[in-house]
Amino acid sequence: MAAAATYERSRRRATGMVNGSLAYDFGTLERQLDDTGRMDPDLYTPSLEETSADVISRAHAHAKAKVRPAQHLSPVMVLGAAAVAVLMVLVVLSYVELATISNSVVSMRSQVAELETRQVTLLTQYEQAFDLVSVKEQALAAGMSLPSDSQVYYIDLSDPDNAVVYEQDSQGAAQVLEQIWQTILHAVEYFR
How high is the pLDDT of residue 18? Predict the structure, then answer.
């Protein structure tokens, strides 16, 4: 059957004869399937001649793989790889430290918020404790009263400040040695 179909196609090409419509028939391949569900290879695959490149590639595929000689590692490459590994470890460690610092910042912020709340509470208690009206009521209840005008004294500080410095007579070399000794004692005390 395949030979007859091939003969019919070659005869149509040679004579230029068209039998039916020139439109492409999409169902041709499905109709040509045999009972097993396979088509003849010549119906859907044009025959190709084997080229020299195909022969060479097949020969290479069958050839046994050759072992490459071992290559020597460059010391610069080893040092570069070691440097990259060290830098990667340092980056990971810096990320760990950054995470630790971030956690401490978050905890400190929560502490600051808590302390601000506590400050507001304590200021409220302080203001309630020192309310002038309640202090005046407590003072009057304890028997205290405001001072009279005869009990109030005013001090005038408009005069400039005055100071009197009394100097002792210097005793000469003994006084200088005493000053040096005091300076040494002060220096020792400072650096302690």
Answer: 61
47-50-54 Cα angle (round to 5): 130
Residue 148 lies in a domain: no
* Rg of the chain taking only CA atoms, in angstroms: 55
In angstroms, the CA 56 to CA 62 distance is 10
Max CA distance (Å), the chain: 149
Low-confidence stretches of the chain (pLDDT beneath 70) = 1-48, 62-68, 168-171
Nearest to 2 by CA among 37, 26, 30, 34: 34
State the residue range of the domain holding 5.
1-16+26-46
* pLDDT score, position 170: 58
Q: Does residue 95 belong to any structural domain of this protein?
A: no
pLDDT of residue 57: 77
Phi/psi at 11 (5° precision)? -70, -40
